């Protein structure tokens, strides 16, 4: 028994060493090629883009000048996205000095059906690949939904969040925007506070 086990152990050790050696060789000799198209830094300002609204008319992200924006990218097939929407509707009701904007990364028909059921109280923009490109224009690699961006009233981008938004995120955003408007903090501090809570 012991004589049979020893060659198996040696074979296993040699196989593991070969795999580790190959991985080490690849890591040291084959540099990762950067993706030139991938954004490298968060944008400073709200990007400009136009998509179709629920009524089929073009709707630009610059339609709410002078208001802070919460831009929420979502889809009808995304369960965490759908969980956020009632909370975002309530947040919009309670804070009419800011604007929630939904961007549906989806085809038009399911969005219209869902919008009829949900009765949005904030504007919805609709696109598929165009909406994904719009998300990427915020300066991050867009890879998952939901995705939310936050701006100051002057259009300065304050932060982004990938994943589900919760009430504590919205309360932090509200406090940051109020402090920024009252000049108790500057944009650098606002960005740090949002990044620290997201």
What would you say this structure looks like, in words?
There is one protein chain. This protein is an alpha/beta fold and 198 residues long. The chain has 2 domains: 32 residues; 148 residues, Glutaredoxin (3-Layer(aba) Sandwich), CATH 3.40.30.10. It is built from 6 helices and 7 strands, in the order αβββαβαβαββαα. Strands 2-1-5-4-3-6-7 form a 7-stranded mixed beta sheet. A hairpin with a 4-residue loop joins β1 and β2. α5 runs antiparallel to α6. About 16% of the residues have low confidence.
Q: Beta-strand level of the residues, as a percent range?
A: 15-25%
First-residue to last-residue Cα separation: 58 Å
Query: What's the Cα radius of gyration?
Result: 23 Å
Low-pLDDT runs: 9-40
Largest sheet, spatial ordering of strands: 2-1-5-4-3-6-7
Helix content estimate: 40-55%
Largest sheet: 7 strands, mixed
CATH homologous superfamily placement of the largest domain: Glutaredoxin
CATH class category name of the largest domain: Alpha Beta
Count of helical segments? 6
Short précis:
This protein has 198 residues and is of the alpha/beta class. Helices cover 45% and strands 18% of the residues.
């Amino acid at each position: 028994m012991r004589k049979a086990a020893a060659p198996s152990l040696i074979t296993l050790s040699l196989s593991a060493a070969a795999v580790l050696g190959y991985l080490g060789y690849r890591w040291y000799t084959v540099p990762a090629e950067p993706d030139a198209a991938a954004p490298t830094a968060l944008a400073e300002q709200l990007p400009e883009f136009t998509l179709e609204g629920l009524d089929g008319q073009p709707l630009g992200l610059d339609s709410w000048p002078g208001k802070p924006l919460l831009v929420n990218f979502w889809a009808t097939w995304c369960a965490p996205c759908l969980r956020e929407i009632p909370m975002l509707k309530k947040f919009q009701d309670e804070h009419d000095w800011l604007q929630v904007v939904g961007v549906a990364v989806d085809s038009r028909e399911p969005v219209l059906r869902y919008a009829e059921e949900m009765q949005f109280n904030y504007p919805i923009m609709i696109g598929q690949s165009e909406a994904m490109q719009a998300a990427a224009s915020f300066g991050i690699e867009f890879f998952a939904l939901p995705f939310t961006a936050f701006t100051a009233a002057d259009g300065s981008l304050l932060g982004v969040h990938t994943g589900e938004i919760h009430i504590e995120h919205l309360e932090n955003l509200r406090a940051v925007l109020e402090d920024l408007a009252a000049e108790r903090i500057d944009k650098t501090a606002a960005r740090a506070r949002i990044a620290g809570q997201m």
